Amino acid sequence: MISDHSITKQEIIERIKSMVFLCMYCDSPHPIALSVVEYERQASESYATAFFICPDCRNKFVVKIQDLGKVGNS
Questions:
Q1: How far apart are CA 70 and CA 42, in angstroms?
Q2: Structural domain boundaries enclosing 25
Q3: Reduced to 3 states, what is the DSSP secondary structure of residue 5?
Q4: Which of 26, 28, 56, 65 has its CA 20 to 30 Å from the CA of residue 2?
Q5: Which of these, 61, 73, 65, lies nearest to 18 by C-alpha position?
Q6: Contact call for residues 9 and 2 (beta carbons, < 8 A)
Q7: pTM to 2 decimals?
Q8: How many domains does the chain have?
């Protein structure tokens, strides 16, 4: 049996994978590929953390997105 938490986690990860991110360092017009997505729940808050490496300038950065409970309820 799959829990609601697992379904929500997968929906959020899939939504982040569908987003387009551009490098904030070199201003390249090319979207950067997502390397890793982690989902964590702390007390009553949940976060998705995405790790990126720009293929043009090779800078690394992390985007942390708070889950406001909207995924799956729209």
A1: 17
A2: 4-67
A3: helix
A4: 65
A5: 65
A6: no
A7: 0.65
A8: 1
Q: What is the CATH number of the domain that holds 62?
A: 2.20.25.420
* Predicted confidence (pLDDT) per residue in 20-63, tens digit: 889 888 988 888 888 888 888 777 778 888 898 888 999 888 88
- Which position has the token pair 């959020």? 12
Return the HEC string of 10-61.
HHHHHHHHHCCCCCCCCCCCCCCCEEEEEEEEECCEEEEEEEEECCCCCCEE
- Give the span between the Cα atoms of 11 and 26, in whole angstroms: 30
Task: Provide Rg for the chain, Cα atoms.
Answer: 14
72 within some domain: no
Summarised one tens digit per residue, pLDDT across range 2-14 is 566 677 778 878 8
